[in-house]
Amino acid sequence: MFNGILISKDEHGYRAALQSIDESVLPEGDVTVRIDWSTLNYKDGLAITGKSPVVRKFPMVPGIDFAGSVSQSSDPAWPVGTQVVLNGWGVGENHCGGLAQVARVRGDWLVPLPDAFSTRQAMAIGTAGYTAMLCVMALEQHGVKPEHGEILVTGANGGVGSVAVVLLARLGYRVVASTGRPAEAAHLQRLGAAEVIDRATLSAPGKPLAKERWAGVIDAVGSHTLANACASTRYGGVVAACGLAQGMDFPASVAPFILRGITLCGIDSVMAAPARRRAAWARLARDLDLDLLEAMTTEIGLGQAIATASALLDGQVRGRVVVDVNR
To answer: Which pTM does this prediction carry?
Structure first.
């Protein structure tokens, strides 16, 4: 038996509860991990509250991330005692996830914990930070350099946005952070934002083309915000889209693509190839300021995760949340 959050759905409804879980609930897998830390992402908030059909099987342990040590293994790549990180692969959706003390998964889903990080720091990064790094890498791979101009980061107070601001600033880019919480402007400037703008300037329906401004964009919001970001991206600029906090729709036109030659890159962190994951984690180990990571991180116990999930969806959580699954 181990402690964890278990989501169930039956004739009595959809509910998430912290409880003692029998290991028979765990799915098949060749590696069992004793979890040290997990985290809360936007998707975890949707899963725990049931506000979106994230969970595909029941009962389900939510949590798309975890970090800990291998306790049992039939995969020679992962000896007992190895410290590992997992992000995505449908964990917490159709395969029991990280908001528990134990997980059983496929060995090829795991990434070795970089020497630069503790398991707690790895979860302060989590899928949000790993996704932010994938976005930065996409901008770089399409030739966006600091001297080309400003980079817009939307949803900048969220997990992806906060880490993106830190990474971009450290790499020499001038970062403009968009947020719906103007009171957090000073915090975003401490993370590296050169300017903070109100999300209202981007979130309403806009024109097919707007004044050119952004050399690149990292967007975690979607909907009108993404459309307006594309409309105001400079000729040849690049937009990395990774989220849908405002909505799944994309009410845009082809004008920015055919008249300004911009590139829209879709960033998927869930099923990214192992080599790409390892490359992203290696870059995080090199480029992420751990002091700033700590400044954006809040720690909670497993017993607080359900309430915090609701607060996260309501926009009341700043930056990253790490979950100590053993308290």
So the answer is: 0.94
- Torsional sign, CA 51, 53, 59, 60: negative
60, exposed or middle or buried, with CB in 10 Å at 0-12, 13-18, 19+? buried
Residue type at position 192: G
Query: Across all residues in the chain, what is the average pLDDT?
Result: 96
Q: Where are the beta strands (DSSP E) in 26-183?
A: 31-39, 65-73, 83-87, 102-105, 111-112, 150-153, 175-179
| pLDDT, position 185 | 95
Contact by Cβ (8 Å): 114, 281: yes
104-138 per-position pLDDT tens digit: 999 999 999 999 999 999 999 999 999 999 999 99
Q: What six digits make up the tokens of 73?
A: 């293994």
- Helix, strand, coil % in the chain, rounded to nearest 5: 35, 30, 35
Paired sense of beta strands 31-39 and 102-105, if any? antiparallel
Task: Report pLDDT digits (tens) over 256-294.
Answer: 999 999 999 999 999 999 999 999 999 999 999 999 999
φ and ψ at residue 298, rounded to 5 degrees: -115, 140
Residue 102, classed as helix, strand or coil, is strand
Q: Is residue 197 part of a domain?
A: yes
Domains in the chain, number? 2
What digits encode the pLDDT tens for the residues 301-314? 999 999 999 999 98
Question: In sequence order, what E strands does 150-306 have?
Answer: 150-153, 175-179, 195-198, 214-219, 233-241, 263-266, 297-301
Residue 227, in any domain of the structure: yes
Look up the CATH number of the domain holding residue 41: 3.90.180.10
